[in-house]
Amino acid sequence: MGWYYEDFEPGRVVETPGRTITEADIGNFAGLSGDFNPLHTDEVFAREAGVGGRIAHGPMVLGMAFGLGARAGLFDETVLGLLGVQWTFEAPVRPGDTLRASIVVLEMRPTRKPDRGIVSLRLDVRNQQRVQVQTGHCQIMFMRRPEAD
């Protein structure tokens, strides 16, 4: 079970477990998204383009950041909707990189419906060398904790 609205507190930081990006992740995301850009699928092209070799799709890593939050126990069964995302791609992610996210609670606000509230979070995604590769803010609607009978 994920966190309820009441479990969040502005300023609280949650560190996620890590996840290593594999060749299969990149190939599967290319197939799923239809994005076969050679920066992701062609090692020679990516080297000649000056990016040092194949890189992961930016949106794939963004999605994995939310998956890391789920692995940290935040989202399962209590999220009612992702309302907005503002995201920045700062450094390439390569096969073999291990990513972790720091999730910071920015603010909270109740909604007109008493069974839900909105939490604003910042997600900072770093690789195994602590280089920040992506960062962003999101607004997520969470369930409120049910009242005890």
Describe the structure.
- The structure is a single chain.
- This protein is α+β, with helices and mostly antiparallel strands and 149 residues long.
- The protein has a domain of 103 residues: Hotdog Thioesterase (Thiol Ester Dehydrase, Chain A).
- The chain is 23% helix and 35% strand.
List its salient traits.
single chain, 149 residues, alpha+beta, Thiol Ester Dehydrase, Chain A, 6-stranded antiparallel sheet, 4 helices, 23% helix, 35% strand, elongated
Shape field: elongated
Classified in CATH, the superfamily of the domain at 5-21 and 58-143 is: Hotdog Thioesterase
**CATH class bucket of the domain at 5-21 and 58-143:** Alpha Beta
Q: What integer is the average pLDDT?
A: 96
Helix content: 10-25%
CATH architecture of the domain at 5-21 and 58-143: Roll
Count every helix, treating DSSP H or I runs of 4 or more residues as helices.
4
Structural class: alpha+beta
Q: Rg from C-alpha positions?
A: 17 Å
Task: Give a brief description.
The protein is an alpha+beta fold and 149 residues long. It contains 4 helices and 6 strands, in the order ββααααββββ. It has helices at 23-33, 38-41, 43-48, 58-71, and strands at residues 13-15, 19-20, 79-89, 98-110, 116-126, 132-143.
